């Protein structure tokens, strides 16, 4: 149990990788706060976690992580209900498909906002609670960690996702800046970059047999990943087992880049 006496916020926890990460952390003892825009999805995730563990391990908070006021309300909720925060998983994200020459400015901004600005806003507001918690620790320092979900696309730009590739490369670099700043508090910050993973985000694409076959062909392990496999890596980066790791990115792409 790596996360006993640990409070964790997971954004985008109503589905996919975020939900799998929330389940992983809660199974190992954490109190998890699930954040997203769609309350019904968050409540379904929380119900699943609470009935699986037979305790109230999961709470929900509806927030748009691209909106500063909404993120400040989240910070207020965490502070007043939990009084401290040890782990933050910045997982919310998404993309649209377009060519640079056809991309409207609004779409560019939306993709930057949900993938990159959100990581800045949430890290800023919840990072203050994490740093304040460190100052109250007298006898021993607790494990505190931020994990940002970047992407293989942040390493190798994808066709027709110029905004997403740029934003995720930004997340990888923002992670390093944040790690430098938070090291003063002993708070570690790393990113995890998944390759192709079966989630609602990739569902439509993977239903296209030709596309799915091309992914498998170009991946050394010959298959797409599962949300649980990424959740395991997020949990490792968040856990005390990664106590000497900060400011780095863990690429989990099934061997896409080596092919
Ligand atoms: N699946 C892959 O192959 C893959 C590969 C590389 C990286 N990733 C990254 O992994 C992360 C999780 O994606 P996923 O694949 O698990 O897809 P997903 O199931 O669509 O999860 C994304 C979650 O983010 C939430 N979200 C989106 N916009 C938000 C906002 N403005 N405020 C709050 N929450 C928001 C969504 O819920 P609401 O719409 O209800 O808010 C949703 O639950 C993303 O950062 C994605 O870029 C995925």
From TrEMBL:
Alphabetized GO MF terms: 3-oxoacyl-[acyl-carrier-protein] reductase (NADPH) activity
PROSITE patterns with a match to the protein in the record: ADH_SHORT
Superkingdom, natural source: Bacteria
A Pfam short name: adh_short_C2
EC code(s) of this entry: 1.1.1.100
Alphabetized UniProt keyword annotations: Oxidoreductase
UniProt-listed InterPro entries: NAD(P)-bd_dom_sf (IPR036291), Sc_DH/Rdtase_CS (IPR020904), SDR_fam (IPR002347)
Family: Belongs to the short-chain dehydrogenases/reductases (SDR) family.
The protein's name in its UniProt record: 3-oxoacyl-[acyl-carrier protein] reductase
UniProt lineage: Bacteria, Bacillati, Bacillota, Bacilli, Bacillales
